[in-house]
Known about the structure:
The chain is mainly β and 358 residues long. Helix content is 11%, strand content 43%. A hairpin with a 7-residue loop joins strand 16 (232-237) and strand 17 (245-257). It is globular. The model is unreliable at 1-39 (pLDDT under 50).
Amino acid sequence: MGLILPAIGLNFRKKMKAARSTKTSFFSIIMTLSLVFSACDKLGRQPPEWVSGMFTPDGKYYVYTYAERFVIQYSKRGASSKTIGKLTYYLQAIHCATGKKVLETPWKSKEMLSICLLDATDIWLSSFNLNGKPGIALFDLKKQQLRYSPDQLRSINPDLQRLGLEIKLFKNESDSPGLILEMYDGRQYRIDAGTGKTQTINPTTTRIFSQNSDCYQVTNSIKGITRNYSTRTKLFKKNKKDPDLASMDDFIDPAFLSLERKYYGDTKDLTHYRQNFFVLSAANTNNKKALVLSMLDVTTLQTKWSVQLPQEDAKNKTYFKERFFLDGDKMYISSTSGLCLVDLKNGLVMATYSLYKK
């Protein structure tokens, strides 16, 4: 920063001198000032950027990876800009009931990290190094340490050197824990969490969602309920007693929570809570940042409550990455900026926790 700011200051003084000599308007001077401070704002450490995340199977923890960018040089010409710096990736977990971070210091890596699978306290990760070489790593959340690095697993299993850029993951339908992935030869292998060794298995067709995917615990249609396709739409239920029963409220891009959806092509049932179901919709048409969760009566389609989910601005505009976990009368909901707890009896947000602030 010390080397860059004087250059900016010198450039600024030249522009100010030119402004005076040509009787540039006060507005131009203010614009020059704003450009200087804008450039300063884009240097140094930038806000964290969410990469992937999911709840553990028991809902005790929300585990996530994120990146931090440190910019050492920034330039802008017209509509295009260029930044030079370094990226550091982190793994962290948050205790859902308390909001307390599990790792006192987030686990840090120079390789891009994305969560593949959570199996009890085993965190399977995909990684990409600076050369774009893919790999698999295993982090032990209970011991809070890396069990196998990508290099260690490649050493144990030389075939992992030939992983493709797209790592295809599949549901483990065996009684033995581990990560199931497809290798370059088209066969599926299970990586044993204890030994780190791979073993061929009978293939399965059930693929796992990548944990950097958009919100996948929703379905766009459910049996017995229809909608029209205007910008805002009500929901309609057809039955013999009331052939055109309509919801009290209308929604933008409504989707229905189906929290058991974990795999591609999964057709799990709608998630119910005390004869109610949940609708996730957009608060406006601008973006997916502002989402509204509503609870509707299964029989009447009347809204019991609606709440806008907390979501801070994301510099990279990464939104619609929500994950949900139903726990009795409450629901944990994660976003790219935080975790919140919603009381399902009244729709009130009882607590919010930042993913990045201590």
